[in-house]
TrEMBL record:
It is found in: Nucleus. Belongs to the metallo-beta-lactamase superfamily. RNA-metabolizing metallo-beta-lactamase-like family. CPSF2/YSH1 subfamily. Signal peptide: none annotated. Gene3D superfamilies: 3.40.50.10890, Ribonuclease Z/Hydroxyacylglutathione hydrolase-like. SMART domains: Beta-Casp, CPSF73-100_C, Lactamase_B. GO terms for molecular function: 5'-3' RNA exonuclease activity; RNA binding; RNA endonuclease activity. It holds the Pfam family CPSF73-100_C. Residues 21-236 form the Metallo-beta-lactamase domain. It comes from Zygotorulaspora mrakii. This is Endoribonuclease YSH1. CDD domains: CPSF3-like_MBL-fold (cd16292).
Amino acid sequence: MEQLSNSSFKFFSLGGSNEVGRSCHILQFKGKTIMLDAGVHPAYEGLSSLPFYDEFDLSTIDVLLISHFHVDHAASLPYVMQKTNFQGRVFMTHPTKAIYRWLLRDFVRVTSIGASSSGKDENLYSDEDLAESFDRIETVDFHSTVEVNGIKFTAFHAGHVLGAAMYQLEIAGIRILFTGDYSREVDRHLNSAEVPPLPSDVLIVESTFGTATHEPRASRERKLTQLIHNTVIKGGRVLLPVFALGRAQEIMLILDEYWSNHSDDLGGGQVPIYYASNLARKCMNVFQTYVNMMNDDIRRKFRDSQTNPFIFKNISYLKNLEEFQDFGPSVMLASPGMLQSGLSRDILEKWCPEGKNLVLITGYSIEGTMAKFLMLEPESIPSINNPESTIPRRCQVDEISFAAHVDFQENLEFIEQISANNIILVHGESNPMGRLKSALLSNFGSLKGTENEVRVFNPRNCVEVILEFKGIKIAKAVGNIVDEIQREEIIAANNNKDGSRVEKKEDDVEIKAEQSTNKDMTNTVNNAIDLKPVKKNEIKEENRELQNGNEEEIIVSGILVSDEKNFDLNFVSLTDLREHHTELSTTVLRERQKVHVDCKKELIYWHLCQMFGDVGVLLDEDNVTNMVKQENGNRNHTESEDQNGKLVLQVMNDIKLTVVDSTAALEWSQGLITDAVADSIVAILMSVDSAPASVKMSSHSCGGHHCHHPEHTPDEVLQRNSVWKVKQISNLFKEQFGDSFTLLLEKGDDHDMKDEDIYGVITIGKNSARINFSQMKIEECNSNPLKGRVVRILDMGADLAASLC
Ligand SMILES: [Zn+2]
Ligand SMILES: [Zn+2]
């Protein structure tokens, strides 16, 4: 594979490009790799139904996002997770995961029947594979941003089926929107797809219907119900092959209402409607669970009647065909939608020889499937249970689309709102996709040759699209600098009533920044901070220029902090640097502090050893430290009366304490941890003379005059040490979260009453986290970003604790 330059973005499809089925796309940018969807092609069986997984090293994938539960988007996921070297993390929305479980179980069952009847053993995976991989799938909430290893992504409603998501990804400031399958129509149960609030640089969009135009919804509903009505009234049977979930519920909402309103014309309940699916009942509950993700209509129905709107008055469920009594006219919704095998295929073979029957296709028919073949009105169809014979086809075949995919006009309007300069078409057969490409290019023709030129790609599977992104850096302003920018904006807006176009969220501002160095600023900063190149982080001083629509500039000074691993480029004021960038602790600011001490040097050394364990001795002119070391085993040392020499100690690698005469000088590099440790050393130095342990030490060195003073037991020392550690770690949290953080001392439920656990609680708006400091772990947290922050601080705290043990 071609070597990518640092600014190259690569798109690559393993399936679902110039075809509908086996959707699977790869994105690569700045060393990150993302996979979008892992489907199968419903027209093929076994391994040949998979995306071209051999064409890519799946072990390099960081994140795999599943857009929705349809088999052409999700059904090879267990294969990827269990049968390949894929090691990444997998995400889908909650309803998708809830339905995916049942659907794929059914998929395993149906395909294994199909495979055994064709004499092949080509099952892609087993029930066990499905179960094992299921637990490793993570869920995302709509509208909340998840970050994995520098890749940020947010799910938005796609309006296609329950739980269907669009994902907007952000890597190193470049935003990519993947629509998955999407619909802009408000139907009977779902809202239309959302337009994400932030713009995108690359749009990966479905092109299923190409340049076709949907008939208005109302006339499609009318046609559907009339066609069915006319067929059953003449004694015919109607087969509606449907995908088990999603559109099936939509069709049932239409039919149930029609049957209720036309009961008399239809013989007062004499014409039954059946929904034949193994999953029907199980999934009713899932649909009810997620009513809150559906549109107002359905929610109102649910609220008013307090009954599940997906339990229908006029529709009965059939688990299999054994319980089906086929005596007269009826309407049968049956899965699978493509008629490849299973219940719908069995009914098709039974009903298709009779001319008064009707097969009504309401979904999108994938190339190469029986559903697509039927539309050609063939003389006969092959029998699946008896491959030697064919079955004559005399039944009517019709198509009225309720497939929840955009038509041309809807797609174009959405594409214009996203206003991405790069559009990659997927999920469409070559011809409609090609027509869509031409239509888009002519629509955006006036932008050709300008910097806003729109490029449209319709690559084949395994053909790369490479895009170059150069020179744009997006920095996020955080902390106090946001106020400063807003103040400047108001001034600018007052000067110029058109205002400025700087995008603003509640507490952070997005700015497009150009690199330019201001010498004065550099000097000022260098006075305060000794900048050193550090491993992961880099500090640059920049003078930011915010451009508004009228070429007016707002000038704000601050520091750009870039994190090369996560691509975060934050713009902060100097005073906020520590608060927002604790990882910059390697930045060296030497601090010094002098303290007057009025006690013997061995006492200082002894106390520090008690607190920090391993204290290094850099210089000990009076040999006091050896005396302390031998003190327990051998008390017959000779005390040096004359202590004028220098003692230089080292605590935690980086803190140097020099004691000479009655002055202790402390020197350390600035950092959250080292600052905290230095503080505590100062506290020890100041209190050393009054601490009871000092007396103990003194008692040994002065011949046992004070031997009745209480001594600290090892347990007490240990406890004091661990309390001290918790205090230091909680200080880290205080620094990060301020008043949002509180420390609690509680008796644990199942602990011995002597054991008290120390908890920290962080509450920021609706988000909260509860941390058990005694066990150094997070116990509850309802927000992933917050959790990430807490875990980072705990890690840092664990390092601190480890270095003190
Ligand atoms: Zn779909
Ligand atoms: Zn699809």
